[in-house]
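[audit] Reproducing an earlier prediction to check determinism. Same input, same settings, fresh worker. If the tokens differ from the archived copy the diff job will pick it up downstream; this log only records the rerun itself.
[audit] input (281 residues):
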Amino acid sequence: MTEGDSRLLAMAAEIEALRRRADELERSEIELKSYLAAMNDVILVTDWEGRYLKIAPTSPELLYKPSDELLGKTIHDVLPAKVADEIVSNVRCALETQQVMSLEYSLDIGGSERWFLGTLSPMPEGRVLFVGRDITERKQIEDALLLKQREIIRTQAAALAELLTPLIPINDEIVVMPLIGIVDSDRAQKVMDALLTGIAERRARVAILDITGVPLVDTLVASSLIRAAKAARLLGTTVVLTGIRPEVSRTLVGIGAELSGIETYGTLQSAIAHAMSESMS
């Protein structure tokens, strides 16, 4: 084999190698395009300034503007200032720390609010790969769950309020509110509201407040009970206090409570019996 023949064979081998590499590159390109076509994320490359350098052809409907109107511009040129500030801040943090950053943000896309989870990965040469995933459906579910949770809390609070301030009708004219447990300023207000509302709705002639189950009747509680009783009297209802222990009497005297027009009994049973006898007379 001549030297010329050897060179020809070498050139042919080199051409074949180049052809195979070209085929591999073509297959890789086709494969990459297939991957990108199957992705539903916004994928782009930006730099320290937040400039759009590259935009992958994935989910163009999720872009804030068409890609040809974004390339070469900065995020601040395009997006609302608050969102742009957050994204660019995370871009720079990713480059400074060489750590993956993430943030959630919302944009008006096509007239509706869309939520995104942005993941920012540092790349060589001061660039950042930004992947924005549409999480609108997840956010909607979270918001619905939050609303449901708040509704449950409101319902439970209302049920608890009824338990803390029960108003029990004895008959058409007599209602009883037995109080059990600590009475603070918030509960004292609820007691007054429930008492006055129940009296007005039932047009009760007698309302019995039983404080046998209240372990501590201090100045706050005593004052609140007196105010509730006086307010009920303005509605034409006779108020009866029961369960008054010696220490409660001392508290009432100590605050100079005006009990005129308010009947008192030692026990709830005796107060109910007296009110029933007057109701039947």
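[audit] rerun output stored. Observation attached for the diff report: Helices lie at 3-38, 75-78, 81-97, 136-164, 185-202, 219-234, 246-254, 268-280.
[audit] end
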